[in-house]
Amino acid sequence: MPWIYLLIAGVLEIVWAYTMKQSHGFSRLMPSVITIVAMVASFGLLAVAMRTIPLGTAYTIWTGIGAVGAFLVGIAFLGEPVNATRIIAAILIVSGLILMKLSST
């Protein structure tokens, strides 16, 4: 279960990053509320996952899911640029996540 909590926490990180962008500096109510709720839930699930998953592993995977997810959401929904350097960077992050998962006990 801790890995499922960590995965959900990472997805919620993507949600709060996207809705924070949509809040326009917390000047729009609904995106701001969603951001805060998703942040609290994401941190809460990360904390629960860290009961059994080592700090370095949990935090790296959580931030990696958020980083790559936000990158993909930015491309898909916000029209952010796609170029070789950004794609290579995302691939390297995913590779690191896989190695971190494989190295955990």
Automatic annotation (TrEMBL):
InterPro entries in the record: EmrE-like, Small_drug/metabolite_transptr, Small_multidrug_res
GO biological process, alphabetically ordered: xenobiotic detoxification by transmembrane export across the plasma membrane
Encoding gene, per UniProt annotation: sugE
Descriptive protein name: Guanidinium exporter
Transmembrane helix keyword on record: yes
Family statement: Belongs to the drug/metabolite transporter (DMT) superfamily. Small multidrug resistance (SMR) (TC 2.A.7.1) family. Gdx/SugE subfamily.
Recorded coiled-coil stretches: none
Residue stretches spanning the membrane: 33-50, 57-78, 84-102
